[in-house]
Amino acid sequence: MTPITEVEGRRLALSNLDKVLYTASGFTKGEMLHYYASTADALLTHLRNRPVSFLRFPDGPDGQQFFAKNVPPGAPDWVHTADVPRSAGDVRQIVVDDLASLMWAANLVTEFHTPQWQADAPAMADRLVLDLDPGPPATVVECCRAGLWLRERLEADGLDVYAKTSGSKGLHLLCPLEPTPSEQVTSYAKGLAKEAEAELPELVVHRMTRSLRPGKVFVDFSQNSASKTTATPYTLRARAEPTVSAPVTWAEVEACGDPAELAFLAGDIAPRLEEYGDLLAPLTEPDRARPLPRKAGA
Protein backbone atom coordinates (compact mmCIF):
# COMPACT_ATOMS: atom_id res chain seq x y z
CA MET A 1 0.00 0.00 0.00
CA THR A 2 1.27 3.46 -0.90
CA PRO A 3 1.72 5.51 2.28
CA ILE A 4 -0.27 8.74 2.59
CA THR A 5 1.60 11.65 4.15
CA GLU A 6 0.23 15.05 5.10
CA VAL A 7 2.44 18.01 4.19
CA GLU A 8 1.25 21.50 5.11
CA GLY A 9 -2.33 20.26 5.13
CA ARG A 10 -2.03 18.50 1.74
CA ARG A 11 -2.38 14.72 1.47
CA LEU A 12 0.37 13.13 -0.62
CA ALA A 13 0.84 9.55 -1.78
CA LEU A 14 4.59 8.97 -1.66
CA SER A 15 5.36 5.75 -3.51
CA ASN A 16 8.17 3.17 -3.67
CA LEU A 17 10.18 4.66 -0.83
CA ASP A 18 12.54 1.65 -0.65
CA LYS A 19 13.30 1.70 -4.37
CA VAL A 20 17.03 2.08 -5.01
CA LEU A 21 17.59 4.90 -7.49
CA TYR A 22 21.37 5.27 -7.37
CA THR A 23 22.66 1.72 -7.51
CA ALA A 24 26.32 2.64 -6.93
CA SER A 25 25.52 3.94 -3.46
CA GLY A 26 22.19 2.30 -2.62
CA PHE A 27 20.53 5.72 -2.37
CA THR A 28 16.77 5.19 -2.28
CA LYS A 29 13.75 7.19 -3.31
CA GLY A 30 12.92 7.67 0.36
CA GLU A 31 16.35 9.21 0.88
CA MET A 32 15.76 11.46 -2.14
CA LEU A 33 12.50 12.71 -0.61
CA HIS A 34 14.23 13.25 2.73
CA TYR A 35 16.95 15.26 0.98
CA TYR A 36 14.44 17.54 -0.71
CA ALA A 37 12.46 18.01 2.50
CA SER A 38 15.60 18.88 4.49
CA THR A 39 16.86 21.44 1.92
CA ALA A 40 13.42 22.90 1.14
CA ASP A 41 13.99 26.28 2.78
CA ALA A 42 16.95 27.01 0.52
CA LEU A 43 15.69 25.23 -2.59
CA LEU A 44 12.26 26.86 -2.58
CA THR A 45 13.73 30.36 -2.71
CA HIS A 46 15.17 29.46 -6.14
CA LEU A 47 12.05 27.66 -7.38
CA ARG A 48 9.36 30.15 -6.33
CA ASN A 49 7.55 31.91 -9.15
CA ARG A 50 9.61 30.15 -11.83
CA PRO A 51 8.04 27.61 -14.21
CA VAL A 52 9.77 24.28 -13.73
CA SER A 53 10.98 21.84 -16.34
CA PHE A 54 11.45 18.35 -14.97
CA LEU A 55 14.16 15.94 -16.06
CA ARG A 56 12.55 12.76 -14.83
CA PHE A 57 14.42 9.51 -14.17
CA PRO A 58 11.86 7.31 -12.38
CA ASP A 59 14.04 4.17 -12.55
CA GLY A 60 17.24 5.94 -11.54
CA PRO A 61 20.04 7.46 -13.63
CA ASP A 62 20.62 4.14 -15.41
CA GLY A 63 17.02 4.01 -16.63
CA GLN A 64 15.01 6.11 -19.04
CA GLN A 65 15.33 9.89 -18.70
CA PHE A 66 12.94 12.41 -20.26
CA PHE A 67 12.17 16.12 -20.02
CA ALA A 68 8.65 17.12 -19.04
CA LYS A 69 7.50 20.73 -19.33
CA ASN A 70 3.73 20.48 -19.49
CA VAL A 71 1.72 19.86 -16.33
CA PRO A 72 1.92 16.09 -15.71
CA PRO A 73 -1.33 14.09 -15.88
CA GLY A 74 -2.82 13.64 -12.44
CA ALA A 75 -1.24 16.74 -10.94
CA PRO A 76 -3.24 17.89 -7.89
CA ASP A 77 -5.45 20.93 -8.45
CA TRP A 78 -3.69 22.73 -5.59
CA VAL A 79 -0.31 22.70 -7.33
CA HIS A 80 0.35 26.12 -8.83
CA THR A 81 0.77 26.47 -12.59
CA ALA A 82 1.58 29.28 -15.01
CA ASP A 83 1.17 29.95 -18.72
CA VAL A 84 4.55 30.02 -20.44
CA PRO A 85 4.81 31.58 -23.91
CA ARG A 86 6.35 29.37 -26.59
CA SER A 87 6.78 29.89 -30.31
CA ALA A 88 4.04 27.35 -31.02
CA GLY A 89 1.68 28.83 -28.39
CA ASP A 90 1.46 29.02 -24.63
CA VAL A 91 2.01 25.92 -22.51
CA ARG A 92 1.07 25.37 -18.89
CA GLN A 93 3.89 24.51 -16.47
CA ILE A 94 4.24 23.73 -12.79
CA VAL A 95 5.42 26.42 -10.37
CA VAL A 96 6.81 24.92 -7.15
CA ASP A 97 6.00 27.50 -4.49
CA ASP A 98 5.67 25.52 -1.26
CA LEU A 99 6.80 22.40 0.55
CA ALA A 100 3.77 20.31 -0.43
CA SER A 101 4.33 21.08 -4.12
CA LEU A 102 8.03 20.33 -3.75
CA MET A 103 7.39 16.93 -2.20
CA TRP A 104 4.73 16.08 -4.80
CA ALA A 105 7.19 16.98 -7.58
CA ALA A 106 10.10 15.15 -5.92
CA ASN A 107 7.95 12.01 -5.75
CA LEU A 108 8.07 12.01 -9.57
CA VAL A 109 11.88 11.50 -9.28
CA THR A 110 13.23 14.53 -11.06
CA GLU A 111 15.89 17.12 -11.55
CA PHE A 112 14.53 20.66 -11.29
CA HIS A 113 15.37 23.09 -14.10
CA THR A 114 14.27 26.73 -14.17
CA PRO A 115 14.62 29.71 -16.54
CA GLN A 116 16.37 32.96 -15.71
CA TRP A 117 13.02 34.80 -15.49
CA GLN A 118 9.96 34.64 -13.28
CA ALA A 119 6.48 33.43 -14.20
CA ASP A 120 4.87 36.86 -13.97
CA ALA A 121 7.53 38.44 -16.21
CA PRO A 122 8.29 35.98 -19.03
CA ALA A 123 11.51 36.61 -20.96
CA MET A 124 12.57 39.38 -18.53
CA ALA A 125 15.70 37.89 -16.98
CA ASP A 126 16.47 38.71 -13.36
CA ARG A 127 19.73 36.79 -13.41
CA LEU A 128 22.56 36.03 -15.80
CA VAL A 129 24.10 32.57 -16.00
CA LEU A 130 27.30 31.27 -17.56
CA ASP A 131 27.60 27.48 -17.76
CA LEU A 132 31.25 26.43 -17.77
CA ASP A 133 31.42 22.98 -19.33
CA PRO A 134 34.80 21.19 -19.50
CA GLY A 135 35.81 19.16 -22.52
CA PRO A 136 37.84 16.12 -21.39
CA PRO A 137 40.57 15.86 -20.29
CA ALA A 138 39.68 19.26 -18.79
CA THR A 139 37.69 19.10 -15.54
CA VAL A 140 36.05 21.45 -13.08
CA VAL A 141 39.59 22.51 -12.10
CA GLU A 142 39.92 24.24 -15.48
CA CYS A 143 36.37 25.59 -15.07
CA CYS A 144 37.51 27.25 -11.85
CA ARG A 145 40.41 28.93 -13.66
CA ALA A 146 38.05 30.27 -16.31
CA GLY A 147 35.50 31.18 -13.66
CA LEU A 148 37.94 33.34 -11.74
CA TRP A 149 38.77 35.33 -14.87
CA LEU A 150 35.08 35.73 -15.69
CA ARG A 151 34.31 36.79 -12.12
CA GLU A 152 36.86 39.60 -12.39
CA ARG A 153 35.39 40.73 -15.73
CA LEU A 154 31.82 40.64 -14.49
CA GLU A 155 32.74 42.57 -11.37
CA ALA A 156 34.52 45.15 -13.53
CA ASP A 157 31.17 45.67 -15.23
CA GLY A 158 29.50 46.27 -11.87
CA LEU A 159 27.91 42.85 -11.40
CA ASP A 160 27.96 40.65 -8.31
CA VAL A 161 28.94 37.06 -9.12
CA TYR A 162 28.11 33.79 -7.36
CA ALA A 163 29.11 30.23 -8.16
CA LYS A 164 27.68 26.74 -7.90
CA THR A 165 28.65 23.37 -9.23
CA SER A 166 26.53 22.01 -12.06
CA GLY A 167 26.21 18.72 -10.18
CA SER A 168 27.74 17.11 -13.23
CA LYS A 169 31.20 18.12 -14.53
CA GLY A 170 31.16 21.89 -14.59
CA LEU A 171 30.56 25.19 -12.85
CA HIS A 172 27.80 27.79 -13.09
CA LEU A 173 28.32 31.51 -12.55
CA LEU A 174 25.26 33.60 -11.69
CA CYS A 175 24.62 37.33 -11.33
CA PRO A 176 21.43 39.00 -10.03
CA LEU A 177 20.04 41.53 -12.52
CA GLU A 178 17.44 44.20 -12.72
CA PRO A 179 14.77 42.65 -15.03
CA THR A 180 16.15 42.81 -18.55
CA PRO A 181 14.94 41.33 -21.87
CA SER A 182 16.46 37.88 -22.22
CA GLU A 183 17.84 38.57 -25.67
CA GLN A 184 19.88 41.49 -24.29
CA VAL A 185 21.30 39.31 -21.53
CA THR A 186 22.17 36.60 -24.06
CA SER A 187 23.93 39.15 -26.27
CA TYR A 188 25.97 40.48 -23.35
CA ALA A 189 26.87 36.96 -22.18
CA LYS A 190 27.94 35.97 -25.70
CA GLY A 191 30.21 38.99 -25.93
CA LEU A 192 31.75 38.09 -22.60
CA ALA A 193 32.33 34.48 -23.68
CA LYS A 194 34.04 35.65 -26.87
CA GLU A 195 36.21 38.02 -24.87
CA ALA A 196 37.19 35.21 -22.51
CA GLU A 197 38.23 33.06 -25.48
CA ALA A 198 40.31 35.92 -26.92
CA GLU A 199 42.07 36.47 -23.59
CA LEU A 200 42.44 32.77 -22.67
CA PRO A 201 42.67 30.93 -26.01
CA GLU A 202 44.44 27.93 -24.47
CA LEU A 203 41.64 27.50 -21.92
CA VAL A 204 38.31 28.81 -23.20
CA VAL A 205 36.07 28.28 -26.23
CA HIS A 206 32.77 30.06 -26.81
CA ARG A 207 31.39 27.79 -29.53
CA MET A 208 29.69 24.45 -28.93
CA THR A 209 31.49 22.73 -31.82
CA ARG A 210 32.71 19.41 -30.41
CA SER A 211 36.00 19.43 -32.29
CA LEU A 212 37.01 22.68 -30.58
CA ARG A 213 36.29 21.56 -27.03
CA PRO A 214 38.77 18.83 -25.97
CA GLY A 215 40.88 20.11 -23.10
CA LYS A 216 39.05 23.45 -22.97
CA VAL A 217 36.17 25.06 -21.10
CA PHE A 218 33.09 25.82 -23.16
CA VAL A 219 31.49 29.04 -21.85
CA ASP A 220 27.86 28.37 -22.65
CA PHE A 221 26.04 31.69 -22.76
CA SER A 222 22.92 30.29 -24.46
CA GLN A 223 21.12 29.38 -21.23
CA ASN A 224 20.21 33.05 -20.91
CA SER A 225 17.79 32.58 -23.80
CA ALA A 226 14.17 32.89 -22.68
CA SER A 227 13.49 29.35 -23.94
CA LYS A 228 16.36 27.73 -22.01
CA THR A 229 16.60 26.45 -18.44
CA THR A 230 19.43 25.67 -16.01
CA ALA A 231 19.69 23.15 -13.20
CA THR A 232 18.16 24.83 -10.14
CA PRO A 233 20.44 25.34 -7.11
CA TYR A 234 20.28 22.32 -4.78
CA THR A 235 18.65 19.99 -7.29
CA LEU A 236 19.83 16.39 -7.33
CA ARG A 237 21.23 15.25 -10.67
CA ALA A 238 20.69 12.04 -12.61
CA ARG A 239 24.31 10.94 -12.35
CA ALA A 240 25.96 7.75 -11.12
CA GLU A 241 25.90 9.12 -7.56
CA PRO A 242 23.31 11.47 -5.98
CA THR A 243 25.28 14.60 -6.85
CA VAL A 244 23.89 18.06 -6.19
CA SER A 245 24.14 21.38 -8.00
CA ALA A 246 25.70 22.98 -4.94
CA PRO A 247 26.60 26.61 -4.20
CA VAL A 248 30.29 27.09 -3.47
CA THR A 249 32.43 29.84 -1.98
CA TRP A 250 34.95 31.74 -4.06
CA ALA A 251 37.63 30.49 -1.67
CA GLU A 252 36.70 26.94 -2.70
CA VAL A 253 36.87 27.91 -6.37
CA GLU A 254 40.26 29.55 -5.91
CA ALA A 255 41.69 26.54 -4.03
CA CYS A 256 40.32 23.80 -6.29
CA GLY A 257 43.10 21.51 -7.51
CA ASP A 258 41.17 18.25 -7.77
CA PRO A 259 37.68 17.61 -9.22
CA ALA A 260 36.74 15.68 -6.07
CA GLU A 261 37.00 18.90 -4.06
CA LEU A 262 33.92 20.32 -5.81
CA ALA A 263 31.84 17.13 -6.02
CA PHE A 264 29.00 17.26 -3.50
CA LEU A 265 26.52 14.50 -2.69
CA ALA A 266 23.10 14.76 -1.07
CA GLY A 267 24.54 14.07 2.38
CA ASP A 268 26.97 16.97 2.09
CA ILE A 269 24.37 19.69 1.73
CA ALA A 270 22.81 19.92 5.20
CA PRO A 271 26.22 20.49 6.85
CA ARG A 272 27.08 23.10 4.21
CA LEU A 273 23.80 24.93 4.80
CA GLU A 274 24.53 24.82 8.52
CA GLU A 275 28.00 26.29 7.97
CA TYR A 276 27.37 28.79 5.18
CA GLY A 277 23.63 29.30 4.90
CA ASP A 278 22.40 29.69 1.33
CA LEU A 279 25.39 31.09 -0.54
CA LEU A 280 23.06 32.02 -3.42
CA ALA A 281 20.54 33.91 -1.28
CA PRO A 282 21.65 37.25 -2.84
CA LEU A 283 20.20 36.09 -6.17
CA THR A 284 16.73 36.38 -4.64
CA GLU A 285 17.25 39.73 -2.89
CA PRO A 286 15.97 42.70 -4.96
CA ASP A 287 18.51 45.13 -3.53
CA ARG A 288 21.33 42.98 -4.94
CA ALA A 289 20.07 43.31 -8.52
CA ARG A 290 22.28 45.30 -10.85
CA PRO A 291 21.64 46.80 -14.29
CA LEU A 292 23.01 44.86 -17.23
CA PRO A 293 26.04 46.56 -18.76
CA ARG A 294 25.50 47.79 -22.29
CA LYS A 295 27.89 45.21 -23.70
CA ALA A 296 30.81 43.07 -22.64
CA GLY A 297 33.80 45.30 -22.10
CA ALA A 298 31.68 48.47 -21.86
UniProtKB/TrEMBL annotation:
Gene Ontology MF terms: DNA ligase (ATP) activity
InterPro entries tied to this protein: LigD_pol_dom, MtLigD_Pol-like, NHEJ_LigD
Protein's UniProt keywords contain Membrane: no
Protein name per Swiss-Prot or TrEMBL: Non-homologous end-joining DNA ligase
UniProt EC number: 6.5.1.1
Top-level taxonomic group: Bacteria
Pfam short name (any one): LigD_Prim-Pol
Keywords: Ligase
DNA ligase D polymerase domain span: 28-279
